[in-house]
Amino acid sequence: MHLSLIFAQNLFLLKTKLFLITPPFTQLNTPYPATAYIKGFLNTKGIEAFQADLGIEVILKLFSKEGLLSLFEVASLKFQDTSSSISDNSKRIYALQDEYIKTIDLVIAFLQGKNPTLALQICQEDYLPEASRFAQLEELDWAFGTMGTQDKGKHLATLYLEDISDFIVECVDANFGFSRYAERLGRSANSFDELYEALQQEPTYIDSVLLSNLKEKIEAVQPTLFLISVPFPGNLYSAFRSAQWVKKHHPEIKVSMGGGFPNTELRSLSDARVFEFFDYITLDDGEVPVEELINAIENPTYNSFKRTFLLEDGKVVYKNNSTQPDYKQSQVGTPDYSDLLLDKYISVIEIVNPMHRMWSDGRWNKLTMAHGCYWGKCTFCDISLDYIKIYEPVAASLLCDRMEEMMEQTGENGFHYVDEAAPPALMRALALEILRRKLSVTWWTNIRFEKSFTADLCLLLKASGCIAVSGGLEVASDRLLKLIDKGVTVEQVAKVTRNFTEAGVMVHAYLMYGYPTQTVQETIDSLEMVRQLFEAGVLQSGFWHQFAMTAHSPVGLYPEKFGVVKETEVIGTFANNDINYKDSTGIDHDKFSFGLKKSLFNFMHGICFDYQLQEWFDFKIPNTKIPEDFIFDALQEENDFNIKPTAKIVWLGGRPLIEKFTKTKKGNSWDMMTLTFHDKKESFTIQTNARDGEWLAQMLLKITVSNTKTYTFQEIKSDFETNLDDFELFWYSKPINTLRAFGLLVL
Length: 747
Known about the structure:
Layout: H1 3-9, E1 18-22, H2 34-44, E2 49-53, H3 54-62, H4 65-80, H5 88-95, H6 97-111, H7 118-122, H8 137-144, H9 149-171, H10 183-186, H11 193-200, H12 205-221, E3 225-229, H13 236-249, E4 254-258, H14 260-265, E5 280-282, H15 287-298, E6 308-312, E7 315-319, H16 354-360, E8 365-367, E9 370-371, H17 386-389, E10 392-393, H18 396-410, E11 414-417, H19 424-436, E12 442-447, H20 455-463, E13 466-474, H21 478-484, H22 490-503, E14 506-513, H23 520-535, E15 541-546, E16 549-550, H24 554-557, E17 564-566, E18 578-579, E19 581-583, H25 593-604, H26 630-634, E20 648-651, E21 657-665, E22 668-678, E23 683-689, H27 690-703, E24 711-712, H28 713-723, H29 727-731, H30 734-741, E25 744-746
Parallel strand pairs: 1-2, 1-3, 3-4, 4-5, 8-11, 11-12, 12-13, 13-14, 14-15
Antiparallel strand pairs: 5-6, 6-7, 9-10, 16-18, 17-19, 20-24, 20-25, 21-22, 22-23
Helix pairs in contact: 3-12, 4-6, 5-9, 12-13, 18-19, 19-20, 20-22, 23-25
């Protein structure tokens, strides 16, 4: 039933109409899912809501023929000002403005997937105007190798857009960025002063494009409640600009902020000036807080709120007096992407990191397997906050229901599960359910590298459509992994990454340096571990992050346990999350950044493994203490012949073709059977005696993945031994070993 009809039936109950936005800028290739999650919930309540991703809408207005004409006109003022200092790069782009204006609409259509033949022209490298970003091309040709025409076209088109972005930053608006805007104003803004002052200035050119778009939306929707989701610091400034415009032109509309930024940064908010822009700021899961806001708007005497900041008598108060519990994940509905311009998002290829490409190329439906984190112990993580602390998984059958609904709505079969860390048991259940339903989907997610990810489980995940996983190796040092309370060792990570790689699932590792008490020796040893993982071919992608202390992590809450001292205990009146600190080691970890990232870039392309680690740094480092075969030795393990009786046995293959024959030797005859199997790549046969073969053919039908019931190892063993001989002898025979290689899995 259409949402407007549902609303019409409930009109006598509710007058509230909601408008939900994600302000500029997040991603170019896919919508950030927060508003879709809330709209999906509101659908279950029959509440009328509309949503928009103003980020992509503003980008499409800027990067259009009309937008560039206007942009170059605004920039001309700077060029006419003789006192302005303008780089040669911007002068070149300004001189080539006709070429940019002529090509922009076609390039955007190409990146939207609507004009694939343009790749042929782009790849000739005389079609697009080129500025400084194209200086990387020679290096990137080496890095990409012989990439396909479409991919190379996307990459060249991305460089073209980044050239225009550089021009905007220098000549029009210094705060511009494709996936962030005025991020500096939102990062660790303990005081609201700088942001408040920026908001008192005249709107910038980018602001004017945003506010023009917002005006159209507000006048079309005419909401009573305007919800702004702010996931990152780079969305904060434009969120306040949007709220400011609504307050000025439509004071009757109530405005609320929620999302990742307030959830982590604004938990100690006390600056009353914030409420010149917003009526409410809500924290953590948004369903009940929004429901209570609706009740408050419907009934002015209603005074029940859930995790909500508001202004009373000129002072900021935090109200959490609602008796309504948070909804279970089974009750929040399926994310609803309607109203969003799903066919207008643009896929870009910025850098050669294969996992980063997945974040920026292609459209993904976003879902969550489980609320919170099932591990919830990592000492650098904000595990004291509800969105991580409260763990609640979703049933695999419900996840598949939601996947099918979203595929029907969006026409896309790609899913990014945005979990803190997807639970292995739930991933197994989800994979089995996908295969039972015969769904053709592509999915990827974030995991912990734990030993539950056996070779067979990885094969199952791959068969269900899993193409990639990302996980935290963090500091590749067992001492520091223990201090982090990661619950893994480097040796274990090596084995898990090997299992995924051999199954054909790409592995990305989050890497960390500068953790409290980390020594120079440990940083170098960590780099050597990473080098060996890439050299062994079990890791395909990675990224180094420098440690940052946050207020809601164990390190931030109890710094003395980790050998660090907070530089300041001052609690700001606005944002509070990142904490400045001094490490007892006194080491300047910043100096390792360039060498770590440069070495990783090369390792990802399978080269420079023979370089001495010293060659990556322009200062003296110690020799590594890691044995040169550490990872190689960790991967040399004998087969484990111990199978738990409760292990599930699943057959991914099809029904065999059976031929019976008689084998005769020295006057003795045996009834034999040949079973021939066909998979997508090849055919293979096994031979057994007739009785074992008949039992096996019947059992494979029972344990095929399309069946609802899954059988345990003990059940299969008991079934075999009812009429036949020693099961272990049969299980470890050559025919079964062959089947194990072609989809007979022990889970």
